[in-house]
Amino acid sequence: MPLSLLKYALSREHPAPRFFRDCTEPKKTYDAVIIGGGGHGLAAAYYLAKDFGITNVAVLEKGYIGGGNTGRNTTIVRSNYLTPEGVNFYDASVQMYEGLSQELDINLFYSTRGHFTLAHTESAMRTMRWRAEVNKHVGVESYVVGPEEILKACPQLDISCSGQAPILGALYHAPGSVARHDAVAWGYAKEADRMGVEIFQNTEVTGIDVKSGKVVGVQTNKGYISTGRVLSAVAGFTPRITEMVGIETPIVIHPLQACVSEPMKPWLNTILVSGSLHVYVSQSSRGELVMGSSLDPYEVHSTRSSLDFVEGLSSHIVDMFPFLGNVKVVRQWAGMADITPDFAPIMGKTPVEGFYLDAGWGTWGFKATPISGKTMAETMARDMAPELIKSFRLSRFEEYELTGEKGAASVGH
Amino acid sequence: MTLRIAEKKGEWINRDMPLTFTYEGQTVQAFEGDTMSSALWAAGIKVLGRSFKYHRARGLLSFANHDVNALMTDGVDTNIRADVIPVSHGMELFAVNTEGGVVKDKNRFIDRLSPFLPVGFYYKTFFKPRMMFPFWENKIRKAAGLGKVNFDYPRQLRPKRNAHCDVLIIGAGPSGLSAALTAANHGKQVILVDENRYAGGSLGYDHAADSSTSDKLETLLKQVSEHSNIRLICDAYAGGYYGDHLVPIVGKEGITKVRARSVIVATGAFEQPPVFRNNDLPGVMLGSAAQRLVHRYAVKPFHRGVVVTANDHGYRTALDLAAAGVEVLALVDMRQQSGDEQLAAAVASKGITIHLASCIYEVIPSSDKLGVAEVVLAGYDEQTASARFERSSRIACDGVAMSAGWAPAAALLYQAGTKMRYDYAVEQFVPAQLPEGVFAAGKVNGVYDLALRLRDGQRAAADAVRYLGGQDVEQIEVAQSFQLAPSHAYPIVHHPDGKNFVDFDEDIQVKDFINAAKEGFDNIELMKRFTTVGMGPSQGKHSNMNAIRILARIRQLPVEQIGTTTARPFFHPTPLAHLGGRGFHPHRLTAMHEWHVNHGGVMMEAGVWMRPAWYQPQGAKLTAQEAVQQEAMAVRKAAGMIDGSTLGKIEVFGQDAGAFLERFYTGKFADLRVGSSRVALLLDEAGVMVDDGVAARLAEDKFYVSTNSSNAATVYREMQRNLQLWGMSVTLVNLTGAMAAMTLAGPASRSILTELTELDVFEEAFPQGAIRTAEIAGVQARIMRVAFVADLAFEIHVPSSSALHIWQNIMKTGQPFGLRPFGTDAQRLLRLEMGHHLISHDTDGLTNPFEAHAGGLLAMDKAFFTGQRSLQILAAKPLKKQLVKFVLDPGFSAELPKECNLVINAGQITGRVTSIAYSEYLNRVIGMAFVAPDQAANGQQFEIRTDDGLLVKARVVQGSFFKLSAQ
Amino acid sequence: MKLLQCPVNGTRPISEFTYGGEYREAPDPQTCSDKVWADYVHNRHGAPGLKKEWWYHGPSGTWFIAERNTLTDSVSRTYLFGQEKDA
């Protein structure tokens, strides 16, 4: 039992302060306003304060912090992408995650488990090699492994997938991890708040004022706030925000669903993803299997669940692990994923001066939380996007310079 | 010492069928029909499990499928819900998540550590220094989870059923039963489901003591079972509500997906525990659980006990207990006054002392902490939710029944999109605005009086019938008036030493909520996530309502301003096998499939099809590599044949057929001569290569178009869409399944074909690219010269029904010529030798024709084709990469680079290998790769990095591989 | 699984349909600027609301237009392309 818990036993009063203040009335003006109190928005606020000393910042959250996709994802962190710019970006995120519990002084349960992307076809094997080679080139530990090595990490896996889709091999990605998603948002909120950032929950942005191509303020249900810098970090709500400033983007919203099983004694020590079977699964520190699948097939701006999803997912999970037949699904849920045509985010400046975009996070937003916060903070502070995110600029579509992530079709969350 | 009592009318056990099982090694007698919990309780065994976090002993709580602390394993299955799953003869049961048995669980010490484990403690520790986290994580993981999974559990395939009805009624209690009869009497087809083994709901326990209501139940059940419009499904629960009234009914054997025209939710309410210290000890249970024990299983909940209540239900519970022979020592009513006076009088007449405005301050455990020893009664101050000790007393007893209120079982209503409001008259959430076609009746609708519930069922059914078009059906009013709400507004008793549990799944106490709020987690969603209330397997059925009440009090807000957390499916945890169904994975098989299998075909998945990758000749023991080289060599030197039935095959006819193809594909087709063909390259709007096939002109107004196997469906679909959009006079027929195709290739192919057809197949009459219609072996066929795998190759298209006949005839005729079947692996090698790229193998989701040397297929001078405008934009931009052919040095003998190995130039990635193979015919390693444009000139060298990091030199080849010199 | 009404085949479960994206008028490729064309190719009307969408009924091979509210996922009407007035 760690000694740090001793104080709780010795005190009748709960000796822990608020994580963040209960801010209700925004000031008239801020140096920067961040729309969206999820992981990304809170991280951007934190790095604005920490790296650039910009603390007169308001984070506006229409619900509660971390209540959007931050609290709805399957918590996987990895960097085994296809393009060098993608790998570099996510690798920077992984490295930040590794020390983030200590930096934010909260246990994020950042647990490095290794991550296998299973390949059931020769063409999937080719894509795995492609990713492995690019990863290695950039210095990220990924390589192609055969069935024996997969079984070493997960002996319970039916390598033939009940004869339906035999596994030929996998892309193994050593840094693959899971983390406690809510805690990431809370940790950033806590530290940003400590440095003076004001976080407003239940505060909805209803309009953004632009004058001569420049942001001048935001309208909210708690009154008008004037500011010259606005960051939109709202994932599934991005099109609603960009519409307020008249910016066109390729983003469309598709629900992404997930579900969780009853707790059982931990047995799955790694993270498994199957592109062909559209499944990803890991076991949480509570003992639940956390399972997800591919995007819903059509645009919907809601977080409703579907039976199709959980039926398809269950069928594939049981193919992979035939013994799980009587293990029960407790709960299913959905998030609203903001999808781009090239499976890469849209980050940086926009045609509207002072309006910055952190969007297009599709199914990979959680794993980018620290680095997106850091790079967007820098973009806002310097009014210039750092090199690391240049290829994610909004103008790439107009320029026909889509990122190469579009090359790989396989699912990999 | 048995707690089983004399036979009860309507009991669910069969006393003629005794059985024996063991629990934790101890032999137990029971009857058929007993659940695990009822059997154990009858035998006087009260420790049914250990709690998730503190490993406290737990017994019965709800006895209604959310006793998450009483989970069993029978050695095969785990996390079995003991409260509802029947026991069977010979079972060997153990409680899950214990170490050393449920009574002596070694982890029970954790309970004493609880002061060190404040809410969210795991966020505050274990991570400093960083290197220690894996150590702690390992410990936490060992403690986590409930039962152990049995890795040998057999694979289950559970086919699903579908059902349709006019009215789906969920819950066969009084309101559900009466709703079913009303709807059925109006001629509606009704499905009525109930999760219990028998219908009746609270009529069977809460009102069973009254002979008039038990008669009423019998009558209702008889009417329902005899009504031809009603299908009653018991022992199955509605798993969730999904769009357009789709409700999966989850039974023991599988799921029935019910698509209803309307839904009546009559799911009742979950009884909620009042919260006081040690309210979790074995022997402390909900009043409804005590009633179910008595009436369904004829088991006495305890010998001497106390009832704590805040509603009439508690009084009925006390009477039921007394009738079952329990010595009821006190009825502790948290309210200032009793409700129903007759009930109060009846209780008093049994000699039970009624303590008004009182509470249980705490329960004192027995010395072994496994049960109840005493109850501490005190006055109750509603304002402060605390005990007043001026009226304090101790009562020695072995059990407590708790009836302080309810929470609506409204999960399905929430999922359907119902807006709920808090009704202070009933002190619970009730539907405020129901979605179209969804209705609520009974307790879930805030109606508690038995007669009114029956009427509310009729009312809901009448509403549903009217919704379904029965305009003449009269509206029914249900007027409800309450003296006292059936639920206590704040059934919480604070205690300085805590252990007053709100969430039994997760061991969450009152102070955990207070402390979570202190740390800033003071809205319901954040509080849920920080404390984990409601996140356990019972999904907050007994805890969410109290959590909301506590938070409202902390924030000094009315309950409705706190709101509720979102109720997600499933209503009860649902097995993966049930959801997964029969594990259906359809594949398409070609007409020659069996022939391939019988001739050594090694079948591989190719999109939706199964295709032979290569053939193992009879009696041979070739490696794949050997077989592929032999098959390819046969094509180069004699003849080979491949089953190409998987190609997409589309007929395009009508006066605009040529014009249509010109808009759809990049090339020109309007001027194509009848009897000839051209490559058909398809782009998307962004100019990316999507598909390539062949379009052949059969007549002025008729084309026959092929697509890549994997794109057959999508290309046809896009053709159809564009046809509508462009409004052209064209008809499309998808012949992909109706027609089979085979390619006969190689120098001997002409001679073989000559023996089977009268058609002149020689060069002059049948040049490259030509298409002819002729009889082969008596079957009308379309024959095309397509130089994909060899210069001399005939693609033969015939109706699928004749395909095997033709295939066999050609194979037989070709035998003397050395004809062999070849599979997809050899095909890949052959086309590589020919220098043809494969779309989405050699190209990717971003490749445009300029990068893939496909400029020759673009008729940029046409008025329009899909992707043309984007190509105009791309043409003005510098190329970034180019697809080239390459060879390795002659005699290259090291390990071959693999597809997707990278092309490296000065430490930078400039491309990747897309295809590579050794060709025995050429005796060279040949391939295709993306390289930087400045690496793409003929003869230029570049370097490929292998898996092992070695750099292999390759040389660009712009001409044909067949013209390579041997240097 | 929801239901969708195919204008030819009637109400069928959603699993029989394929979503074809929003129906959008293409600018005239002969006259429009590169920027306008790039906008057409890549950008989408992402905000929620009532949209005209392409849907395809697979078993019968029928494309049609559905007017659907992407916020509530409710379809107000469906018709074959070009037959909007008759719907």
Automatic annotation (TrEMBL), chain A:
GO terms for cellular component: cytoplasm. PROSITE patterns: RHODANESE_3. One of its GO terms (molecular function) is oxidoreductase activity. Keywords: Oxidoreductase. Pfam families: DAO (PF01266). Residues 33-76 form the Rhodanese domain. SUPFAM superfamilies: FAD-linked reductases, C-terminal domain, FAD/NAD(P)-binding domain. PANTHER family: FAD-DEPENDENT OXIDOREDUCTASE DOMAIN-CONTAINING PROTEIN 1, SARCOSINE DEHYDROGENASE-RELATED. This is Fad dependent oxidoreductase. It comes from Methylophaga lonarensis MPL.
TrEMBL record, chain B:
Residues 592-862 form the GCVT N-terminal domain. One of its GO terms (molecular function) is transaminase activity. Residues 166-451 form the FAD/NAD(P)-binding domain. Residues 881-963 form the Aminomethyltransferase C-terminal domain. Residues 498-579 form the SoxA A3 domain. Pfam families: Fer2_4, GCV_T, GCV_T_C, Pyr_redox_2, SO_alpha_A3. The keyword Transferase applies. The keyword Transferase applies. SUPFAM superfamilies: Aminomethyltransferase beta-barrel domain, FAD/NAD(P)-binding domain, Folate-binding domain. Keywords: Aminotransferase, Oxidoreductase, Transferase. PANTHER family: AMINOMETHYLTRANSFERASE, AMINOMETHYLTRANSFERASE, MITOCHONDRIAL. This is Glycine cleavage T protein (Aminomethyl transferase). It comes from Methylophaga lonarensis MPL.
UniProtKB/TrEMBL annotation, chain C:
Pfam families: SoxD (PF04267). Signal peptide: none annotated. It comes from the Bacteria. InterPro entries: SoxD, SoxD_sf. Coiled coil: none annotated. One of its GO terms (biological process) is tetrahydrofolate metabolic process. One of its GO terms (molecular function) is sarcosine oxidase activity. This is Sarcosine oxidase subunit delta heterotetrameric.
